[in-house]
């Protein structure tokens, strides 16, 4: 299936002041679009353009770096836009998610600290993740476009720590961006949706 650039699920001003219209325009319209365009070209060249996005990511990992980088970044961003919403974030988590975070990660405050730390300590470009692996939640970080799919896990929340995701709004203050993401942007309903799908 061909990769397609999804519409943002909110308008360009919706996430202000935590993520500006300018950031969303560059990040979605330029960066994400480039992953889609390059990914389609490289998937066709590799004979993988009939596979699902998840399959392209898994099958290209370690074998076709160009295709993997673009396909994985497309996958990451398809979900990244949905992992945010206006008036998101905070401690009011859906019950099933709260229960899992309490039992697997030591509660919300520890999750928050560990997730922000994963994003802060990812050297260079990459992502911080909350995933389900072997039936339990775990926090991890990956370089560049890599994601938990290629490590036997199902990502249910990710934050982009490439500079294009925050530099316009936060300059080099990555921890401030991560705090704003967790406290004010996370769409916990979408995280729950992915958690329920992963836990099946």
From TrEMBL:
<dbReference type="InterPro" id="IPR019831">
    <property type="entry name" value="Mn/Fe_SOD_N"/>
</dbReference>
<keyword id="KW-0479">Metal-binding</keyword>
<feature type="domain" description="Manganese/iron superoxide dismutase N-terminal">
    <location>
        <begin position="3"/>
        <end position="84"/>
    </location>
</feature>
<comment type="function">
    <text>Destroys radicals which are normally produced within the cells and which are toxic to biological systems.</text>
</comment>
<dbReference type="InterPro" id="IPR019833">
    <property type="entry name" value="Mn/Fe_SOD_BS"/>
</dbReference>
<dbReference type="InterPro" id="IPR036314">
    <property type="entry name" value="SOD_C_sf"/>
</dbReference>
<dbReference type="InterPro" id="IPR036324">
    <property type="entry name" value="Mn/Fe_SOD_N_sf"/>
</dbReference>
<protein>
    <recommendedName>
        <fullName>Superoxide dismutase</fullName>
        <ecNumber>1.15.1.1</ecNumber>
    </recommendedName>
</protein>
<keyword id="KW-0560">Oxidoreductase</keyword>
<dbReference type="Pfam" id="PF02777">
    <property type="entry name" value="Sod_Fe_C"/>
</dbReference>
<comment type="similarity">
    <text>Belongs to the iron/manganese superoxide dismutase family.</text>
</comment>
<dbReference type="InterPro" id="IPR019832">
    <property type="entry name" value="Mn/Fe_SOD_C"/>
</dbReference>
<feature type="domain" description="Manganese/iron superoxide dismutase C-terminal">
    <location>
        <begin position="95"/>
        <end position="192"/>
    </location>
</feature>
<dbReference type="InterPro" id="IPR001189">
    <property type="entry name" value="Mn/Fe_SOD"/>
</dbReference>
<dbReference type="Pfam" id="PF00081">
    <property type="entry name" value="Sod_Fe_N"/>
</dbReference>
């Amino acid at each position: 299936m061909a990769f397609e650039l999804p519409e943002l699920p909110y308008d360009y001003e919706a996430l202000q002041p935590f993520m500006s219209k300018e950031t969303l325009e560059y990040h979605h319209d330029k960066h994400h679009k480039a992953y889609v365009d390059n990914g389609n070209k490289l998937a066709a060249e590799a004979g993988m353009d009939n596979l699902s996005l998840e399959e392209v990511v898994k099958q290209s990992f370690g074998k076709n770096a160009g295709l993997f980088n673009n396909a994985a970044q497309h996958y990451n961003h398809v979900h990244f836009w949905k992992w945010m919403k206006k008036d998101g974030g905070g401690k009011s988590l859906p019950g099933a998610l709260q229960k899992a975070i309490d039992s697997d990660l030591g509660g919300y405050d520890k999750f928050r600290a560990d997730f922000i730390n994963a994003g802060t300590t990812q050297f260079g470009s990459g992502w911080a993740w909350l995933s389900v692996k072997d039936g339990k939640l775990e926090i991890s970080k990956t370089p560049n476009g890599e994601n938990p799919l290629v490590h036997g896990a199902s990502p249910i929340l990710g934050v982009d720590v490439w500079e294009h995701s925050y530099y316009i709004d936060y300059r080099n203050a990555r921890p401030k961006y991560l705090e704003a993401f967790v406290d004010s942007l996370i769409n916990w309903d979408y995280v729950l949706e992915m958690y329920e799908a992963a836990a099946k």
